Amino acid sequence: MSGAVTETYAAALQHDIADLSEEATRVGVVRRPTGWFGALVDENRPELGPPESLLSETKDRQEALRRQGLCDEEAHNAAWAETDFETRYRDYLATDEAAGDALADLAERVRAGESVALVCFEGDSKRCHRRILDDVVRERAASPAE
């Protein structure tokens, strides 16, 4: 019996528009959670958030692009491309010990039948690490236990 992996964002939970099963464990994957974020999730795994250096570099690039006239969404998505965010985040997940332990834990829980919903801040119109993480957790959960 295997559980499911889904993903959503904080505002969707706040406005009750997230399409999640009632039994899904809401797992925050936020490096810098705000005070109210904890009320939306059952647990937060900050080690699955992007590393601080990548977050800061991407945010700085996004701000520079906004100053050049791009809207917030365009600046965010362009900054992702310019900082090679996806490749660097995947490398982080593959090499960081704490992230690896958290991934192994989530994969085992899904293999055991638990459904998890990965939650962070970015809405559906912005590129987001939780979608990458969703793929990685699914791949690991489908593999035999290590």
TrEMBL record:
Originating organism = Halosimplex rubrum
**InterPro entries according to UniProt:** DUF488-N3a
Specify the domain of life of the species encoding this protein. Archaea
- The DUF488 domain sits at 21-140
Residue span of region Disordered: 42-61
Q: What is this protein called?
A: DUF488 family protein
